[in-house]
Amino acid sequence: MNAPTEAPPLQQHQREAILAALRAVLPAECLLSEQEDTRPYECDGLTAYRQLPMAVALPQNEEQLIAVLKVCRQLQVPIVPRGAGTGLSGGAMPIADGIVISTAKMSRIVALDPLARTARVQPGVRNLAISEAAAPHGLYYAPDPSSQIACTIGGNVAENAGGVHCLKYGLTVHNVMRVRMVSIEGEVIELGGAALDAPGLDLLAVFIGSEGMLGVVTEVTVRLIPKPPVAKVIMASFDNVVSGGDAVAAVIAAGIIPAGLEMMDKTSARMVEPFVRAGYDIDAEAILLCESDGLQEEVEEEIGRMSEVLFRAGANAIAVSQNEAERMRFWSGRKNAFPAAGRISPDYYCMDGTIPRKRVAEVLVGIAEMEKTYGLRCANVFHAGDGNLHPLILFDANAPGEFNRAEQFGEAILALCVAVGGTITGEHGVGIEKIDSMCEQFEVSEIAAFIGVKRAFDGAFLLNPNKAIPTLDRCAAYGKRQARGGLFKFVKQVNA
Amino acid sequence: MNAPTEAPPLQQHQREAILAALRAVLPAECLLSEQEDTRPYECDGLTAYRQLPMAVALPQNEEQLIAVLKVCRQLQVPIVPRGAGTGLSGGAMPIADGIVISTAKMSRIVALDPLARTARVQPGVRNLAISEAAAPHGLYYAPDPSSQIACTIGGNVAENAGGVHCLKYGLTVHNVMRVRMVSIEGEVIELGGAALDAPGLDLLAVFIGSEGMLGVVTEVTVRLIPKPPVAKVIMASFDNVVSGGDAVAAVIAAGIIPAGLEMMDKTSARMVEPFVRAGYDIDAEAILLCESDGLQEEVEEEIGRMSEVLFRAGANAIAVSQNEAERMRFWSGRKNAFPAAGRISPDYYCMDGTIPRKRVAEVLVGIAEMEKTYGLRCANVFHAGDGNLHPLILFDANAPGEFNRAEQFGEAILALCVAVGGTITGEHGVGIEKIDSMCEQFEVSEIAAFIGVKRAFDGAFLLNPNKAIPTLDRCAAYGKRQARGGLFKFVKQVNA
């Protein structure tokens, strides 16, 4: 039950044969093979990892995509599917002797049914474009990753994208009803449907978040929901991270599901404030943003209850957005944390892990200790409501050793996440970045189950190979390395 | 990519060897092989299909279960896992030369964490027992199938059980966070976790509803939710089924998600009223039950809005439950529809399919026509809110031809469900009952994907073989039969 071995590099004539076969099934403008054309595809949002592909195919429709997949299947060409390339874990990083399949030319909203509250869209449609199309009907598409202006629904499906509102409105998997995809054999398969439950196995849920390893999406049916008439956000200051962390747990324990519940530490607030002027309290050790949305009275009532809970949990100041402009300003700081990091540090490494909400304070303390161990600063932003951590490790790639230390720092954070009962990724996926951490997270039997399902869809391992799911050999090698290096290898804790 | 062929019957010495191997790993009281002991296991809630198994194993713990599975794997013995045997599609029907694994002796609540709002329970714990254990903390487990007094959480996981409240609170898959199971290889695999998203493939969702085909559950971690302080139910009468059906769509379109939204036709109301004295309007052509739960003020407000919508949609009378006793009485009629059918008819056949909400009226008219075609009466009860239909076909098994006609009637109803864009099962599963209808619902490529995933977990097809997923040969034979018989074979409609 083991997966692919590295193939030897292709000879020039083999590459030419593959390109010729692809040219036969695609219009000229839909196949890029010159370096100047393929260069923009050499990485995704994880820019530290780059690789030029043999070619980039941009099919215009399902027929062309089927033809491309059949060529690849027949000639054993590995494939990397790609949406907008905004992913942060290198899931869309090309393979030297493989091709990238971009869905950029399949970007049509096929149907929008305001009564059924659904939209049927092609994979290259941008996340925000769906909400824009739905807006005249008072509807929108809920998942809102930070990249929502650029990222596509096909990529969202591949990564099971979340966003600041997913605590209340769910991830991609909770907002997608049906996916139409093409398998590596070139067969069309439809997953899911309009009903709450469907007979057979729930392959829709498996497909969502499968990082391009099971098939290539050609159409997605999403659920649209009514835009809440009112939204307000509370900004609460805390003079230590422990009470900030406890406040998060207190809000949830009070039976409130905020529309958003985000936390930033002092480093993050100070990093972002000069850049966006969000009005953040830069003397606070932690800032919480708690949003409420719904009908006017509901929002007033919930904001009142949340304020009470936050004060009781130790907030020393609370501000409530007084209008939509102020609400957007409060959020803009949080949403611009990543670019802000780029302004104060030559490089930064955005981690992504989850932890149980009640362990927030403890993990922050642990990360503070690691800052000393690795000699690097770390700014912490959180989707606190669902325990999804985004530590931004600040470093300078030109300073000797800093890149390596940043990577080790990141790995140590993930190990800590697993140790407290969390996971190695909240929403950015595994991709190439965290493939070794998968060995930390899962038992051999569990990795073997993933490989088994992968094999069921793609026995030749041509779809995004060496991403997301490590081979058992790779995990064995990782285990040995960890043991040798004496790095902490935590015992897996079952957190019920 | 095809699945199991029928094995020839075992010789007596082979059966003895298997029983001896099982005896070696189980205490004497945990293995039943005498007919008088195995008789209670010969069928589940689909009593028309019966088969005595070779033996019934009742492991007391995970170690014993692993040992049993290893014996079966080695000796190629097919296995049927079984919870309480309340399933309605024959998923737990035994195999002549196979064994039943009952989880009845693994019935301990391992841990209940009122702060994290989770319970960790063994598979044989009854659905209602979880809510009873959580009640002192003001919590409960939401999915409430009609069989909740008897059915077990292991069986709920296998069937992805729903209930009258699943419109608002979701199915089993939405309320289970983690499953621990043993594969046919005897390996322990944990699926899911505490985080909103998890890295790797979402095998938890695949497992839930997989009808015992992927592994045997040993522990389930469920989400508990706060018991709403108040609940009220509206009973609304309609003088035709079309306006009743339209009222369902109108409630949802008004942005209301009722805690329950059920519909009964006149036949059902008249069938059930003399039996339970629920106070139903037996002159109405359709009755809707709409429940609201939450805080006092929320419930009052929602009951008011729902009443308005229902009147506008054509209700000619509305009653609101005035106290908890009355609320229970209104529901008791709905919940006792099946036993009531048993009182007015020697036999009944409970179907289960889903349809888009807006097609309710049309499907009811179609079923009324089929009553004439097949010469049998049909009482209709609905989880109307999620379009889940439960037609009860009334027949007499002793009257020549009636059983066959009832089966054909049922198949025709399911074909109609698929034709209007629905599915062949809402919540009762496929089991043995609807395995042919799977061929109606899915394309060959889709069935092949199911088989592929099944093979990834159980390559020898020993776990509940010939249930839930048809072989491709079986679908080919079904297709030919339908064509020959001239029975309506609807074109699959994509309903976006």
From TrEMBL, chains A, B:
GO terms for molecular function: FAD binding; oxidoreductase activity. Its cofactor is FAD. Keywords: FAD, Flavoprotein, Oxidoreductase. Gene3D superfamilies: 3.30.465.10, 3.30.70.2740, Vanillyl-alcohol Oxidase, Chain A, domain 4. PANTHER family: GLYCOLATE OXIDASE SUBUNIT GLCD (PTHR42934). InterPro entries: FAD-bd_oxidored_4_C, FAD-bd_PCMH, FAD-bd_PCMH-like_sf, FAD-bd_PCMH_sub2, FAD-linked_Oxase-like_C, FAD-linked_OxidoTrans_Type4, Oxid_FAD_bind_N, Vanillyl_alc_oxidase_C-sub2. It comes from the Bacteria. This is FAD-binding protein. Residues 49-227 form the FAD-binding PCMH-type domain.
